């Protein structure tokens, strides 16, 4: 059945994407969750420190033959398409995968993966958040969250991490195939999660359930399996929340931002505005 194809949520930093993912974690008998499988291509898995996030995405001079990564990339797609079953009922579960657009496009750079049926046949959905909010949040994450953890590599704020351009690139590719990707705006999700999730579920061929909009504050195993420091830091708010209403709070005080943040906002606002016109 076409509606049982894996769902992928393309997103960018600080878009409330882990909170969005919690809605499907609330339905473990029905959905199998895969979180950011391409992260390992930009993180050093040996010392598990935050490392090369900026350079691996921004540096286009990567010298390694991209085809050397193909077996690993294909294995990730096999994992996404693999059948999963609920242990208690042995009923098939649908895969819900979340990934950063820029991580993915960097990982497959120089390959033919964008024409691979395992990529094209996914149910493509997008989560966007106004860069005036998401990029300010990213700057504060770099300067407040990361720097509270001494001993780890701390990247400077880099506008190449924004991810809006890459989300538009994937969106246009799918749209040009006469498919209509699903776009959710984070502000709508926070303001009226029930309405937005009902529509999202309708479009992916699933039934909305009330338990999707409230959850328990707890550690999420699916986010900690890789033990990457960046993951642990980025998911803190989503793990310690009980619903979308808590994301209207400011977890850090407002600050003065350097010009590079405003430049990044201005550069990415057109990509956001473009995707915004397709939102549900």
Main features:
Pyrrolopyrazine_biosynth_F, 13 helices, 280 residues, six-stranded mixed beta sheet, P-loop_NTPase, alpha/beta, Rossmann fold, globular
List the secondary-structure elements in sequence, H or E.
Answer: EHEHHEEHHEHHEHHHHHH
- Contiguous low-pLDDT stretches (5 residues minimum) are 44-63
Average pLDDT level = 82
Please indicate the count of domains: 1
The number of helical runs is 13
How would you characterize the largest beta sheet?
6 strands, mixed
| Measured distance between first and last alpha carbons | 23 Å
Find the structural class using helix and strand composition. alpha/beta
CATH level 1 name: Alpha Beta
Radius of gyration of CA atoms, rounded to a whole number:
18 Å
Range of strand content:
5-15%
Q: How much helix is in the residues? A: 40-55%
Stated plainly, the CATH topology is called Rossmann fold
Task: Count every beta strand, where a strand is a DSSP E run of 2 or more residues.
Answer: 6
What is the CATH architecture annotation? 3-Layer(aba) Sandwich
General form: globular
Organism: Gigaspora rosea
Protein name: P-loop containing nucleoside triphosphate hydrolase protein
């Amino acid at each position: 059945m076409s509606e049982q194809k894996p769902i992928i949520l393309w997103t960018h930093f600080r878009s409330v994407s882990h909170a969005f993912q919690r809605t499907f974690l609330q339905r473990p008998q029905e959905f199998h969750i895969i979180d950011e499988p391409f992260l390992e291509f930009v993180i050093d898995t040996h010392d598990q420190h935050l490392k090369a996030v900026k350079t691996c995405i921004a540096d286009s001079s990567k010298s390694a033959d991209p085809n050397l990564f193909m077996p690993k990339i294909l294995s990730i797609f096999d994992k996404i398409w693999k059948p999963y079953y609920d242990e208690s009922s042995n009923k098939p579960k649908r895969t819900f995968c979340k990934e950063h657009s820029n991580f993915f496009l960097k990982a497959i750079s120089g390959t033919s993966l964008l024409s691979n049926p395992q990529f094209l046949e996914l149910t493509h959905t997008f989560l966007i958040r106004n860069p005036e909010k998401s990029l300010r949040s990213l700057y504060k994450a770099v300067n407040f969250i990361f720097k509270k953890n001494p001993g780890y590599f701390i990247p400077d704020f880099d506008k190449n991490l924004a991810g809006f351009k890459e989300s538009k690139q994937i969106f246009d590719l799918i749209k040009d195939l006469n498919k209509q990707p699903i776009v959710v705006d984070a502000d709508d999700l926070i303001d009226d999660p029930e309405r937005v999730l009902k529509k999202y579920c309708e479009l992916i061929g699933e039934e909305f359930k009330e338990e999707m909009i409230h959850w328990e504050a707890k550690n999420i195993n699916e986010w900690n399996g890789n033990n990457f420091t960046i993951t642990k830091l980025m998911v803190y708010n989503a793990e310690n929340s009980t619903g979308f209403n808590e994301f209207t709070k400011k977890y850090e005080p407002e600050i003065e931002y350097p010009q590079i943040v405003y430049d990044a906002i201005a550069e990415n606002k057109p990509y956001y505005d473009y995707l915004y016109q397709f939102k549900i």
